Amino acid sequence: MNFIDSFIKLNEMETVHQIERMHAYPSRFYRLANILEKRPEFIFVHKIENSFFNFFDTSRFSYKPNNLLFLIFFIFLLLIFNKIFRDQKKS
Amino acid sequence: MIKKNLELIILGLILIFAGLLYCFKLNNVPSGVYVDEAVAAYDSYSLVNTGADHFGQKFPIAFRFFGAYTPGLFVYINTLPLKIFGLNNFSIRFVSVISSLVQLIFLYLITKFFTKDKLKHSRLLTIFLISFIPWVVFNSRLGYEVTLAQTLITVAVYFLLSSIKNPKFLLISSLFFSLSVYTAHTQKILAPLIIIFSFFLLKIWRYPKKIVLFSFLILLITQIPNFYLVTTNSFWVKTSSINKNYSSLLSDINYQLFQTISPKTWFNQSPDIDIQHQIPEISLFYSWMFLPILIGFIKVFFQKKKSIEIKFIIGFLLISLVPGILSGRFMSTQRLISLLIPFSIFLFLGIDQIIKFIKNKLILILLFVSLIFYSLVMLWRSYFILLPNLYASNWNYGADQATQYIQSNPDKHFVIDNTRNPRQYILFLYYLKYNPQKFHQEIGDYWSKDYYQNTKYISNISFSNLEFKPISDDDFKNINNIIIGDDLTINNSDIDNKGLKIINEIKFPNQKPAYIFYQKK
Fold this sequence. Notes:
The structure holds two protein chains of two kinds.
Chain A: H1 5-8, H2 12-24, H3 30-38, H4 40-55, H5 66-90
Chain B: H1 6-23, H2 35-50, E1 62-65, E2 68-71, H3 73-85, H4 89-111, H5 121-131, H6 134-140, H7 146-162, H8 169-181, H9 185-201, H10 209-222, H11 224-229, H12 233-236, H13 246-260, H14 263-267, H15 290-301, H16 308-325, H17 340-357, H18 361-390, H19 399-407, E3 413-417, H20 425-432, H21 436-443, E4 461-463, E5 466-469, H22 473-477, E6 481-485, H23 492-497, E7 500-507, E8 513-520
Parallel strand pairs in B: 3-5, 3-6
Antiparallel strand pairs in B: 1-2, 4-5, 6-8, 7-8
């Protein structure tokens, strides 16, 4: 699977879920089900969304308790910078 | 005349749209009843008929739901729609529908505190968008206390912010904060923290002394029933799940914090441990809302001169994280529901910035029309198509059909396997509309004894011709027994070995078995 394909093609597990979803639609919505579940454009949008949010997913770091200290330190720095920035503007 | 009231007319139309959306197929989607909904509904039913909950406790302050307790206001309010519409899925979810509509009105009013512009487009657009956010739609169609509690907090916050200009509103605010504590456990943590924070931020001691005193009295008097409960398990029992071990507690907080601040949680995939808190293939907000909410967030946090309202919303945001972060090992989005208020403000400020940034009206209209259309299609797909089908088992699909079969066979004795769902007796009480007085007599006084202290839960319950327990070999031997189970109750190969036959089968929409009825050949 090349890079482009990875955004429009489904792996085995994803195909199983896709079939499950297709079966959920009443028969009168068959055409719509095909568009929403099978069209490469929609698959592409969903995969892009997933990749985007996976990239920013902070819960990946939650398994190391030390990261909590880093987070608190980061927020502390952010607050200090915010204050400095504000004071500079005032002066 | 129309031009003068345009804002009200549009707001009215938004509420009509939201009301229709929240009531659409309310009986059937979600496709069944969750045990927490059923127990609240049956307790209301029992209250109406006997003045006691289903365990026989007369007018409880907190209701004993299985092995835990829930503050009682929702159950009491629920008696009103139950009287009007009867005991059914629509009536038990109706309080949440109304609560959500009221919440929308007050969120709209709260946005007024965050803009000096006279233009109302962005505020109306924001409220319209909030009305069909998956999180809001999901909670507005839910038959338990979270939505009502959130609405009470929203109303309290509105009057609290109003009190900055007119201190008299502090009286109403304190009443609503106090009521929220009687609705859900989360508010027991949230309301006191907000009150303490606001006291210092708004410098409430500078308010007229009479108003401060009366507000305090309102809080004090309305909390008397809770003072009575404060030494019992019923006041604390849900928080007892918090790990007492220090290192585990820190690890849980760490996990919860990183989950909570992750955009993936809010805009892509909800990590909630309970499937019945989720909608398939969609998270709490639409993914595109990440951008306006982020813009609003930056605007709030990096504003040069922060107004008192902005400071309040920052504090409120941080306080709202507390109940969620303290909820143990697994994330519960329902404990974070109060974040809807700051998120609504961020969304509003972000939308406002986008509207100001894109000067071309045509592009703006096209942009929002396509986003709204896309969002509504995704909501329809996830909530109305996928949820009732893919999550049918989590919503106890089939229990109503099982009770219909039981009703049509009153001379048989049914043994229901509760190994995988120990709380399912309540579903049968609910669907059978079983006479609560009769139920009180049949279960005896074990449950009503030491009502506010006893957290021991016994799942094996018998009433009428029904017996709920894990199935044993002896149950198969009795020819008069009909065993109700699922596909894991008995191995397919054992059906013949034990001399059983399948006499009825209720299937989930995906054709997997929900309930199987076995009887001795």
